[in-house]
């Protein structure tokens, strides 16, 4: 076990835990954001650099601070480590800089992007970005590519987190897409516009933190915040069958895996569940899905009935007088 | 001329053949090490010598070797980094081309010291002709029993392979090199774990530069203490310097560390002064990634002392008034060279060579290049200079590998020392973009 202090909060975690995971155990504001790290994907992390933190004390044994900011998603904790995240000015400035870098070539087409409302980059920019725009050159653009009948790749939005590459590597039998090219010309691709065709290919949509990989059965059907997420399950021979249905009225608009508050799926689901079972009768509905993330979806929290809350709670008495009496 | 450790016999005709090389004392270190010394003794000699990595970072080689993890039953590897691609650096190519056996001898002795039974030379893809020279030399060494099973009857086995890269600068970074050698995309790895623990094929690995490895035979032959006598302080031994730019005698020089920079530039023994007797404007002393220094700061340190060709003296003053030894690529600029154009050229290189894995480097290098291009071609704004400084700072230290730093340093340093030249480009775009126009020190008067 190792004792680690993050922003003044002490927690004991198992050896080999990363700083990010330790911070997630504490929860709340001390959790660094993560765009490329994905708990269930081995080897992910370290690429987007938004989770950088300052280690002011390496360990009890070697109390020297680490010279550079470190990526919290891949740095393992050591006993007596002291980490500064939101309490360190350098960290916040570096993060601002990196968010700016992530956005300079991002099209910012949120109004027409299907990911808007559940986009990690959107959340990240709200929390850590700067409001100005210093990049005045032309942005990098790519053509849209259809990766088979279900998935569309819109590379212009991609932040090259490599999550979809690791997903295809680790949960499917054969990976046909990867990163081609290098530098800012690097792109996700299937080389000669191959089709991604296997039972679990749809999961790349779920792991994508932005709107680069989208579900073609859902594109432009609706805005995510108008739909109601429902936990549901079915007896699926291929996967666990535990999903979230995104419904509007009686219509199932979209099926995704269940995602936690860090936007990571609990269990990967198969393509049959995701793309083919689009009717309520296919599913056993468990109840409303609780969306914990700080997202626009949670603005419509309908699962908690509002009971006995005064409509005008704390107005000064002078104003209250003018209101109609009960 | 000082002592020649690496290049003593380099101009002997036929030195690339085993026969001539042996006639001039070649492979003595292999015999000495394998027959009379234990591997640890060789490591100890290298430690005593104070030899530092010649690839750019200057990390003590003996210490790097002693960090190598030695778990039971796991093979260890020595990899020679011959992926020399830093703009301005050409010493390794020249050395391997001329004297391939010197590197092979170093590889055998070093592999023995590290207990590696398979070693690799990872050579830059563009240097295919050097690869052929090396392969021929390796075949000769196999035939003479210097490689393969039971070398010289000592019971030590070593297989040496040469592997060409695909021509990516990033594969000179040690972990990207290992990825590439494993047959993967050359993306740098996250560290830790360091290669000394988990390197090639997840086994403990040492990665060393060509020049570093080629220095080992002399150290084994003459002793580490003898090597440590050459040079000044912690900069021991000799160093190959690739000199280029506006000088009378460009080329590769082997110098004893500690030669004053002024002597190095102006003496006929070395660079022979500035071409056509012009004025010295600036020097990049260690390859394109290290900070550029204006004439006054390269000849004297900020404290007014003579600057010497050593790791410490070139770095004196930190990045405020100093630079780095780097890989020893000494690039000289005369008064007619435009710093803005040169900085743009470097930025363009790093933009092109960024692997695209981590976001600050992928996006930042392109951004800097575009802004510098704009300034150079007369479309800059006054706030662009501060923008460049800020972007460079956003990249520096926040990336997976040092390529981000290497891209940010030259831009930051050029602005630090030549800010008025950038301002001149922005304020007088018409004059600055005229053919052959150069800023000559007066911000608001045009002299070109």
From TrEMBL, chain A:
**2Fe-2S ferredoxin-type domain span:** 2-89
Q: What are the required cofactors?
A: [4Fe-4S] cluster; [2Fe-2S] cluster
Instruction: Cite the source lineage.
Output: Bacteria, Pseudomonadati, Bacteroidota, Cytophagia, Cytophagales
The protein depicted here goes by the name NADH dehydrogenase subunit G
Q: Name one GO cellular component term.
A: membrane
> Any idea where this protein resides?
Membrane
PANTHER family documented for this protein: NADH-QUINONE OXIDOREDUCTASE SUBUNIT G, RESPIRATORY NITRATE REDUCTASE
Species: Pontibacter mucosus
Sorted UniProt keywords: 2Fe-2S, 4Fe-4S, Iron, Iron-sulfur, Membrane, Metal-binding, NAD, Translocase
Q: Where is the 4Fe-4S His(Cys)3-ligated-type domain?
A: 90-129
Family according to the record: Belongs to the complex I 75 kDa subunit family.
**A molecular function (GO) term:** 2 iron, 2 sulfur cluster binding
Write down the InterPro entries for this protein, in alphabetical order.
2Fe-2S_ferredoxin-like_sf, 2Fe-2S_ferredoxin-type, NADH_UbQ_OxRdtase_ferredoxin, NADH_UbQ_OxRdtase_Gsu_4Fe4S-bd, Prok_molybdopt-oxidoreductase
Please name the Pfam families in this protein's record. Fer2_4, Fer4_Nqo3, NADH-G_4Fe-4S_3
UniProtKB/TrEMBL annotation, chain B:
Pfam families in the record, alphabetically? Answer: Complex1_51K, NADH_4Fe-4S
Please name the PROSITE patterns in this protein's record.
Answer: COMPLEX1_51K_2
Query: What are its cofactors?
Result: [4Fe-4S] cluster; FMN
Q: Which reaction does it catalyse?
A: a quinone + NADH + 5 H(+)(in) = a quinol + NAD(+) + 4 H(+)(out)
Give the matching InterPro entries.
ComplexI_51kDa_subunit, NADH-UbQ_OxRdtase_51kDa_CS, NADH-UbQ_OxRdtase_suF, Nuo51_FMN-bd, Nuo51_FMN-bd_sf, Nuop51_4Fe4S-bd, Nuop51_4Fe4S-bd_sf
Entry's EC annotation: 7.1.1.-
Q: List the Gene Ontology MF annotations in alphabetical order.
A: 4 iron, 4 sulfur cluster binding; FMN binding; metal ion binding; NAD binding; NADH dehydrogenase (ubiquinone) activity; NADH dehydrogenase activity; quinone binding
Note the SUPFAM superfamilies from the entry.
Nqo1 FMN-binding domain-like, Nqo1 middle domain-like, Nqo1C-terminal domain-like
Function of this protein? Answer: NDH-1 shuttles electrons from NADH, via FMN and iron-sulfur (Fe-S) centers, to quinones in the respiratory chain.
The UniProt family comment states: Belongs to the complex I 51 kDa subunit family.
Name used for this protein in its record? NADH-quinone oxidoreductase subunit F
Protein species of origin: Pontibacter mucosus
């Amino acid at each position: 076990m190792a004792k680690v202090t993050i922003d003044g909060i002490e927690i004991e975690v198992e050896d080999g835990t990363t700083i990010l995971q330790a911070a997630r155990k504490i929860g709340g504001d001390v959790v660094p954001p993560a765009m490329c790290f994905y708990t269930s994907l081995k080897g992910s992390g370290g690429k987007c650099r938004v989770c950088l933190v300052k280690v002011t004390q390496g360990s009890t044994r070697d109390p020297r601070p680490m010279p550079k900011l470190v990526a919290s998603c891949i740095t393992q904790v050591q006993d007596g480590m002291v980490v500064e995240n939101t309490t360190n000015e350098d960290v916040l400035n570096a993060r601002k800089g990196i968010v700016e870098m992530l956005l300079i070539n991002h099209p910012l087409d949120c109004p027409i992007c299907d990911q808007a409302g559940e986009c990690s980059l959107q959340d990240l920019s709200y929390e850590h970005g700067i409001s100005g725009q210093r990049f005045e050159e032309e942005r990098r653009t790519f053509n849209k590519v259809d990766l088979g009948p279900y998935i569309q790749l819109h590379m212009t939005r991609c932040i090259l987190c490599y999550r979809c590459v690791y997903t295809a590597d680790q949960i499917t039998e054969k990976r046909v897409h990867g990163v081609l090219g290098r530098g800012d010309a690097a792109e996700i691709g299937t080389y000669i516009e191959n089709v991604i065709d296997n039972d679990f290919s749809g999961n790349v949509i779920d792991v994508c933190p932005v709107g680069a990989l989208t579900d073609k059965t859902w594109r432009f059907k609706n805005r995510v915040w108008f739909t109601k997420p429902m936990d549901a399950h079915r007896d699926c021979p291929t996967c666990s069958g535990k999903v979230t249905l995104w419904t509007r009225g009686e219509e199932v608009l979209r099926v995704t895996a269940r995602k936690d508050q860090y936007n990571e799926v609990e269990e990967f689901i198969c393509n049959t569940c995701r793309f083919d079972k689009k009717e309520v009768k296919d599913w056993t509905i468990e109840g409303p899905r609780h969306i914990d993330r700080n997202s626009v979806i949670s603005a419509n929290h309908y699962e908690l009935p509002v009971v006995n809350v005064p409509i005008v709670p704390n107005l000064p008495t002078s104003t209250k007088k003018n209101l109609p009496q009960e | 001329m000082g002592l020649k450790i690496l290049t003593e016999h380099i101009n002997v005709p036929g030195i690339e053949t085993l026969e001539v090389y042996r006639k001039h004392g070649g492979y003595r270190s292999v015999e000495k090490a394998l027959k009379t010394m234990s591997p640890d003794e060789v490591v100890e000699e290298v430690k005593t010598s104070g030899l530092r990595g010649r690839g750019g970072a200057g990390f003590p080689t003996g210490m790097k070797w002693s960090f190598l993890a030695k778990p039971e039953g796991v093979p260890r590897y020595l990899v020679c980094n011959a992926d020399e691609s830093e703009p301005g650096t050409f010493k390794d190519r020249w050395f391997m081309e001329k004297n391939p056996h010197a590197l092979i001898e170093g590889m055998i002795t070093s592999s023995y010291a590290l207990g590696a039974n398979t070693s690799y030379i990872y050579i830059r893809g563009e240097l295919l002709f050097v690869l052929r020279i090396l392969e021929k030399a390796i075949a000769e060494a196999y035939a003479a029993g210097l490689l393969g099973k039971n070398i010289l009857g000592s019971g030590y086995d070593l297989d040496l392979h040469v592997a060409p890269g695909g021509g990516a600068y990033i594969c000179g970074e040690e972990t990207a090199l290992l990825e590439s050698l494993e047959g993967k995309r050359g993306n740098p790895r996250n560290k830790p774990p360091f290669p000394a623990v988990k390197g090639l094929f997840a086994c403990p690995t040492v990665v060393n530069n060509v020049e570093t490895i080629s220095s080992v035979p002399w150290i084994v032959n003459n002793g580490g203490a003898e090597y440590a006598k050459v040079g000044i302080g912690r900069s021991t031994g000799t160093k190959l310097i690739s000199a280029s730019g506006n000088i009378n005698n460009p080329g590769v020089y082997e110098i004893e560390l500690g030669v004053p920079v002024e002597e190095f530039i102006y003496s006929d023994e070395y660079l022979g002064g500035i071409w056509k007797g012009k004025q010295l404007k600036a020097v990049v002393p260690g390859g394109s990634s290290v900070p550029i220094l204006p004439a006054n700061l390269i000849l004297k340190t900020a404290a007014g002392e003579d600057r010497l060709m050593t790791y410490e003296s070139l770095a004196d003053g930190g990045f405020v008034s100093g630079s780095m030894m780097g890989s020893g690529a000494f690039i000289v600029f005369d008064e007619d060279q435009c710093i803005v154009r040169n900085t743009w050229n470097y930025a363009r290189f790093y933009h092109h060579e960024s692997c695209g894995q981590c976001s600050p480097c992928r996006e930042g290098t392109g951004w800097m290049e575009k802004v510098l291009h704009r300034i150079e071609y007369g479309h800059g704004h006054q706030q662009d200079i501060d923008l460049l400084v800020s972007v460079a700072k956003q990249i520096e230290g926040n990336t997976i590998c040092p390529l981000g730093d290497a891209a940010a340093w030259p831009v930051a340093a050029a602005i630090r020392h030549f800010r008025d030249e950038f301002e001149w480009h922005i304020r007088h775009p018409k004059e600055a973009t005229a053919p052959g126009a150069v800023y000559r020190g007066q911000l608001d008067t045009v002299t070109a």
